[in-house]
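Repro:
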Amino acid sequence: MNKYKKWLFAIVSAVVIFLIAEAAVVVYVDPFFQYHAPLTDFPYLVDNQLTQNPGMAMHMEYDSVILGSSMTVNFNTDWFEELLGLNTVKLNYSGAYPKDQSNIMERIFHSDNQVKSVFLGIDVMTCTGGVEETKYPIPAYLYDDAVWNDASYLWNKDVFLDYILRPMADPDKTDLATVYQSWWTDEYYNIQWVMHNYEKPVPVEEETEADAYLASVEANLAQNICPYIEQNPETVFYVFFPPYSILYWNDVITENHLEATMAEYQYIADRLLAYDNVRVFYFPDREEIVTDLNNYADYTHYHRDINRYMTECFANGTCEITASGEMTQALARTRDMIERFDFDALFAVDW
């Protein structure tokens, strides 16, 4: 009986030692940055927005952040240093809803960083979602300050194998200046590729009421965006509307919600322009960008050169909207661009 007890004790002890050792390695390397900033010499793999953004928000050193959906992934933070003198970190979420922005801003403004600027991309199609809706379920234990609920991080096979052992075996440290950049290489940005993969929407006969989206938009702004603007008056929020391609507007027209979409843009701009620490930038009326499908890899996602252009605009004020009337004029230019565009000729080609 004593022999079995010794074996049992040895096995339990070995398991406990292994678990302690694994947790110690995870805490030391900390691939999700939950406890400290990155180690200088470790080749961190950063490829998971849901699990790694909150830690970066808390423990990286920065004075500026880029937030938004996949419309923001091709920004290079070095440009913000070059053009605006800002030390910027990119914390975007593909397909982000306003609640996703709120979740990460909660971490950003809970950190020790003095945030000078937030560059926030607003996608009108997600602003109509529920105020608690996120693109993907978040691992809540990574978005709080508690340690007792970190077991899923400390003893996680995927964390240990994919984010500690694999980078050690094949060191290729992620460049944080271009982190999360899209997989599309330059050859994908052309009209043939875009049109070959574009799926026309099903036509809708009944027009959406012009104010149909406004209640949801107001709720999302009130709960997920505006509180952070109001609570951080020393931070300048550069809020911008990305330049989706002309095919996006074909979807809007075909699905018969042009007036509702225009009203949504106007409402968001008017609401945010009321704050002294908000600057609004509107890019959907940039006809030379929007109507040239060689700038895109699909109907909304544009080449990194467009991200560079937008960064230059943040620096020099091009495309900035400073009053409600200017937004009305910008929307009128967008409407005129849509009306003049020859969709029939585009779709007549066998791509």
